[in-house]
Amino acid sequence: MCKRASVARLLGAVSPIVLMTAMAWPLDDARGQTLTDAFVSTYNSNPDLMSQRARLRAVDETVNQALSGWRPVVRGQAEAGINKQNSSLRSPREQNLRPNSYALSVTQPLFRGGKTVAATRGAEADVLSERSTLVDREQTVLVGAVTAFSDVVRDVATVLLRRANVNVLQQQLAATNARFQVGELTRTDVAQAESRVARSQSDLTAAEAQAASSRAAYQRVVGQMPGPRMSEAPLMGSVPATEDQSVALAIEHAP
């Protein structure tokens, strides 16, 4: 089964809102890296999720440990030895003895005062608790993936916008200088145009720094650097209209 189908099933169990976001997202790889790709990578490689899954597997084993109280206990014991005896009376002779003994016992618990039943129920409750903790962690991490993805798309678009703005203002500065040379504008007009260019270059530098920070955050959450082409995130769709609807959704789905 493909990874995207697995993630879709996961999202269906985790959060209807996230599921609606993922299923509305186009899967055409020609459009560049998609939000679904980010979900797949996050689900498979995020260290927080991998740690929580390992913890759940460890807690799962406590159920078998508790059930072992009902299972028979087999104990075995074996002894072996050599005993040499030499006799010099009348007819000297040597006698070798090899005493061996074996024992096997089987004990089947029939009643332990409710200890095994209580331990089994406690272990099963711990497993359910850890499963809910894992679902909660998955929701948190996947929402972080959505945020990181959207931040990268936004900041890359901002860099392109700032870069285009610098180019436009540089052209305006060149036109202003040309008009100043023929006496149509004053030195003040040139200084103002130069100030706008410097300000736009400063904004571009800040946007590039923010984009680099967003890429690093994306790598931390998703597990890989964002691709050169990022598809825009889809609209989330409708949200609960009232507080009561929000509470009802939380009661039904929140782990």
Commentary on this structure:
- There is one protein chain.
- The protein has 255 residues and is mostly helical.
- The chain has helices at residues 3-14, 16-23, 35-45, 47-67, 115-181, 187-222, 243-253; strands at 73-80, 83-87, 93-97, 100-107.
- The strands form 2 sheets. The protein has a two-stranded antiparallel sheet. A two-stranded antiparallel ribbon has the order 2-3.
- Strand 2 and strand 3 (93-97) form a beta hairpin.
- Helix 5 packs antiparallel against helix 6.
- The longest helix has 67 residues, at 115-181.
- The radius of gyration is 36 Å and the shape is elongated.
- Mean pLDDT is 83; it is low at 1-31.
Topology overview:
Blueprint: H1 3-14, H2 16-23, H3 35-45, H4 47-67, E1 73-80, E2 83-87, E3 93-97, E4 100-107, H5 115-181, H6 187-222, H7 243-253
Antiparallel strand pairs: 1-4, 2-3
Helix pairs in contact: 1-2, 3-5, 4-5, 5-6
Q: Which class do the helix and strand fractions yield?
A: mainly alpha
Assembly context of the chains: single chain
Distance between the termini: 26 Å
Order of helices and strands: HHHHEEEEHHH
Compute the average pLDDT: 83
- Strand tally is 4
Helix percentage: 55-70%
Number of helices: 7
